[in-house]
What we know:
The chain is mainly alpha-helical.
Amino acid sequence: MWGLLSIQKLLLLAAIIGGVFAFYRFMDRRKKTNDTPRSTPRKNRSDRDALEMTSCATCGAWVSVACERPDCPIE
């Protein structure tokens, strides 16, 4: 069966080689599109709504404004 080359065997071989080549091109194109950095980075909603936090030296809590303690150094 595999001794002589026939047209069916050549067509099957060509189809296999073409399939492997097409798969390689698809994976290469996919890799190139995933490697390119975005031109405009998106800002997360949490980044826009974030507050600047400061550690209170008196109580050690992280606060954006002065804490409730009367001796808090943050104003």
